[in-house]
């Protein structure tokens, strides 16, 4: 199929070359954009008028003819979009056959909320996000501490977006608070539909994070979510690749409905992966349109606003932990906005008050799997020293569909003052597992545990000095703990070294 697509693309290039001889356009891509825009504009115009019950041509026969052409164009574009997106990745590491998707339908009235998920905003607030098919539904949240008894009402805003012929429902975002820590609240969105409940994170240690990457919406995903929900936790961290919609926008809706039972009850803090980009050659939709509209994170809140939904940071457990979510697909080189922001953000972290410093990103900086070799190297070279100097404790990544835990590293060498690197891109995506690790890889001696299985991880920060990391493999009806390690905060280690140095100085 991909070979056919390449032949078709070659023929299209020849056609554009012929056209370019006669048409004064700067490039073949320019010809393609002009042609696509002309056809697409006419088709969208017809479909918008038809949705309003209006005639596009003024005659029945004209509308019938244009309608047939518009729907044929829609099917053609959607098919080519899927084919092109898949063929872009056709030469990547060959994976096992994909798992069938688990598609969750919405069978309630248009005004009823769906795809409900929550995220932290600052120290004491929470953002409630949801979608309604009714684009005029109100962006309000009623909430209180008892079921059915709502003592407070908060209002927010909503947005929509269009991608080819898909137009989203109303995507609502409402911030509620201030809220008390470690407290259960009951809430209802848009004055309609079901009641939900959430529990706010603790204001002090201990705190437990669930970490999953490359989630998708397959039977494997459903198993991972079931295992996560079987044990308590305070917050979920996801280092990219959420829905695997890959330009098929209804899959964003299905994904939101699939994760709603968990994502409506505990904060989900996410960053983008490559499957959130959703751009295509020629057409050039703005990247991250669906992701930014649906999964709004607190990039504009707190003491360190980043100005971009693709990277941000937040505090947890009353500031005992600082979590940095980096963007592997936003500019990160010297002089970039993300790098300047990261410098400012790390500089303001006082490790005497914040003993734990965590970083999440998508493309791993260290990786001995055959899949995605070297894709994180440029970002590592640009930012690794900053994380090392800040004494980051752990760096979590996704992208590679397997689990791998490394030693503490700096610049490809074991270093007790460097972060521990963990790849956890095994949430359940449709592409399957990356089964093969490279035995003689230059980083093999630094890789302490590796397994190509689906699962999830948990980081429980016990106190200012100690935390325990465990990786839970999906094993039939229960999650099996396959890897577990205790960590000491690098801030605590640094403090202990300083005390030892002072004691030796006093003795001298």
UniProtKB/TrEMBL annotation:
GO terms for molecular function: acid phosphatase activity; metal ion binding. Residues 209-403 form the Calcineurin-like phosphoesterase domain. It catalyses: a phosphate monoester + H2O = an alcohol + phosphate. Residues 113-198 form the Purple acid phosphatase N-terminal domain. Residues 418-484 form the Purple acid phosphatase C-terminal domain. It comes from the Eukaryota. Pfam families: Metallophos (PF00149), Metallophos_C (PF14008), Pur_ac_phosph_N (PF16656). Its EC number is 3.1.3.2. It is an enzyme of class 3 (hydrolase). Keywords: Glycoprotein, Hydrolase, Signal. The keyword Signal applies. The keyword Glycoprotein applies. CDD domains: FN3, MPP_PAPs. Belongs to the metallophosphoesterase superfamily. Purple acid phosphatase family. This is Purple acid phosphatase.
